[in-house]
Design brief:
The complex is a heterodimer of chains A (342) and B (118). With 342 residues, chain A is of the alpha+beta class. Chain A has 8 helices and 15 strands. The longest helix of chain B is centred in the first third of the chain and has 13 residues. Classes of the chains: A alpha+beta (342), B alpha/beta (118). Chains A and B meet through loops of A and helix 3 of B.
Chain lengths: 342, 118
């Protein structure tokens, strides 16, 4: 069967769905099909009891009466000990001939999702996952008060192949003094499509995905998880809120709980389907509202926050780097079907 | 009494330089060239501070730090590596400071003083 080229509506990116080399989930399971055990806990700076080895916490959810930087926490946020970006107002950009540079100002924090080294985000009770999500909201709000930070990126690297250097479950927050290129591309794409559809492009995609149903993985009253039409990677997933909103901080309390339920479900299904693969989870949202609403007064109508989960099962290689095309050996419809099956 | 520093550095020329420079500052330096020797010395002597390289033959500096943490967590540790990139590894957080190797030892000396409360 011939492969198929598919276009991602928002980014305009093309993907090759290589159906002739279509694989099954078993093809991605490591031989022996045994999930890798978490690394032996010799010493881990994120484990309870080792709080002294991280910089002082900036925030934590902890048992009443316990002191900061001591045991008794459930979610803990610490600044990066050796940060790539340091807080403070960014000075004007410098130029060296035709090249531009600026001081590395920004925020880099680590969200330690739970004190137990062996419990991944998807293994936690739904109410604990909700707490982690609530902490994300709180940190975004706190960081965005400083108008030097134009964009707050929340992401999770799970597993070495996904970029994690420590197996203790954690997410990261990086705030940058500029709006990253990929975020701008998404805004421009959504803006262009808004004019075509006369509505938010993400809302339209969600409606069409739900109508088609073939790529839906899970849904509840507030959220839908599906495999994007032009998925770049096998078992790629995205989670859209049904209620239109550009900013993650707008998610309501009742919605946080259903988001936690959705996340737990899809992460568990991913773990069961492809044997606990490494993955990246990335939050997409509009830039700092205090700034972006000035530059793009209607951004709240066009941008639509969502989560992207990318299992690391294939390698990005020369063709992808050279062309921006991705080759996906599993059609998203097939991936969604496997992820849906209990 | 002189403060005791354990230096773990596989390049002998650097060991000699550090020993000379840090001795001048009034420290008692014990230099070893690999992690196993460092662990053996830790069993014999009570050090006030440890300076370790990361890339070394045998066990690397991060594995060494992990083992030291299993023994005692209260000795300040400075990572002294030629590679800035290792800072991105959260395991380096077990150390108290990260100083990139440079021709000047000023930053290293300042961090030693700070960690020893001098």
């Amino acid at each position: 069967m011939m492969s198929e080229l598919r276009k991602d509506l928002i980014s305009g990116r093309w993907v090759i769905i290589a159906t002739e080399r279509s694989k099954r989930p078993d093809d991605f399971r490591p031989r022996g099909a045994v999930a890798p055990a978490p690394e032996a806990v010799g010493f881990c700076p994120f484990c309870e009891g080792n709080e002294g080895k991280t910089p002082p916490e900036v925030f934590s959810l902890r048992t009443a009466g316990t002191a900061p930087d001591s045991p008794g926490w459930t979610v803990r946020v610490v600044p990066n000990k050796f940060p790539a970006l340091t807080p403070g107002p960014p000075p004007p950009r410098a130029t060296q001939g035709i090249f531009q540079s600026m001081e590395g100002r920004g925020v880099h924090e680590v969200v330690i999702e739970n004190p137990d080294h062996a419990l991944e985000l998807g293994d936690l009770p739904v109410t604990h996952i909700r707490e982690v999500l609530r902490v994300f909201q709180m940190r975004i709000r706190a960081i965005e008060c400083d108008l030097h930070y134009q964009y707050v990126q929340i992401f999770k690297n799970k597993g070495k192949e996904a970029g994690a250097s420590l197996s203790h479950p954690h997410s990261q927050i990086v705030a940058t003094p500029i709006i990253p290129k990929r975020v701008k591309e998404e805004i421009y794409g959504a803006d262009r499509l808004f004019r075509v559809f006369k509505e938010c492009a993400f809302c339209r995609i969600l409606r069409d995905e739900e109508a088609a149903g073939t790529r839906i993985i899970a849904k509840n009253g507030h959220f839908t998880a599906f495999a994007p039409y032009a998925s770049r990677f096998p078992f790629e997933m995205t989670v859209y809120p049904k209620r239109h909103s550009a900013f993650f901080t707008d998610v309501r309390e009742d919605e946080l709980l259903t988001l936690a339920e959705t996340l737990k479900h899809v992460l568990t299904r991913l773990k069961e389907t492809v044997n606990d693969p490494p993955f990246n989870m990335v939050l997409h949202q509009a830039p700092n509202p205090a700034l972006s609403l000035k530059g793009w007064p209607d951004i709240h109508l066009k941008s639509h926050w969502h989560l992207e989960i990318i299992p690391i099962l294939t390698k990005v290689a020369g063709f992808e780097w050279g062309t921006g095309f991705y080759i996906n050996p599993i059609p998203p419809e097939t991936g969604a079907q496997f992820l849906r099956q209990p | 009494m002189k403060k005791k520093i354990l230096l773990v550095e596989d390049e002998r020329a650097l060991c000699l330089l550090y020993e000379e420079e840090l001795s001048k500052e009034g420290y008692d330096i014990t230099a070893v060239t690999d992690a196993e020797a460092a662990l053996a010395k830790l069993g014999e002597i009570t050090f006030d501070l440890i300076i370790t390289d990361i890339r070394m033959p045998g066990k690397n500096g991060i594995e060494l730090i992990t083992q030291i943490m299993g023994l005692r967590k209260d000795i300040p540790i400075i990572i002294n590596s030629a590679y800035q990139s290792y800072k991105e590894d959260f395991m380096t957080w077990a150390a108290d400071a990260y100083v990139v190797k440079s021709s000047s030892l000023d930053e290293l000396k300042a961090r030693i003083k700070q960690l020893l409360g001098e």
